[in-house]
Amino acid sequence: MIKMIVFDMDGTICDLYGVSNWLPKLRASDVSPYRDASPMWDMEKLADILHKLQKQGIKIVVVTWLGLGASPEYKKATSAVKRDWLKQYDFPMDEFHAVQYGATKADSVRKKLNPGEEAILIDDSKKVRNGWRLGPTVNPTVQNILDILAGLVQ
Predict the structure, then answer these.
(1) How remote is the C-alpha of 73 from its chain's centroid?
(2) How far apart are the C-alpha atoms of 115 and 133, rounded to whole Å?
(3) Fewer CB in 10 Å around end: N or C, the chain?
(4) What pTM, to 2 d.p., does this model score?
């Protein structure tokens, strides 16, 4: 039984990689690419579907990595900008976890699932999806997450 949907952000719901010079900016501790990234989906439709899933008792969680080798100050600023981005697009969520780059994302939610419950992971990283053991995974670069999520609405 699906009890949780876990979203990555960068390259999954926000187009960080479409921001001009995103990597040099991040390496220079510039948070603007996170702020300037465009949504990858119709955020109104996505929010509508997620609200319906929440009413069914499904938790919506964001687990996003912070910058590789980032200073504590830059990590804090990145986390704040990512939260602001989600708020700007009215992304409904029950939890937000900004974690160390490379951290196992399942560790952020594993203890919140009871036996027999599953969490769907939506993440553009094949490595992260392959390491997910809490339920199904979705590759948003080849699958339409709006259609998949709408299919869960009862």
Answers:
(1) 22
(2) 13
(3) C
(4) 0.96
Q: SS3 helix, strand, coil % of the chain, rounded to 5?
A: 40, 20, 40
Q: What is the pLDDT of residues 96-141, one digit of tens each?
A: 999 999 999 999 999 999 999 999 999 999 999 999 999 999 999 9
Instruction: Give me the count of residues in the chain.
Output: 154
CB 116 within 8 A of CB 1: yes
At position 151, the amino acid (one-letter code) is: G
Q: Which residue has the tokens 């990590």?
A: 75
Cα separation, 18 vs 55, whole angstroms? 33
Cα–Cα distance, 37 to 20 (Å, whole number): 10
Which of 96, 101, 108 shows the shortest CA–CA distance to 13?
Answer: 96
Nearest to 82 by CA among 7, 5, 10, 141: 10
Which helix (DSSP H) or strand (DSSP E) does residue 3 occupy?
Answer: strand 2-7
Which domains can be identified in the chain, with CATH numbers? 2-150 (3.40.50.1000)
Residues whose CB is less than 8 angstroms from the CB of residue 8 and which lie 6 or more positions away in sequence, other chains included? 62, 63, 64, 65, 105, 121, 122, 123, 124, 125, 128
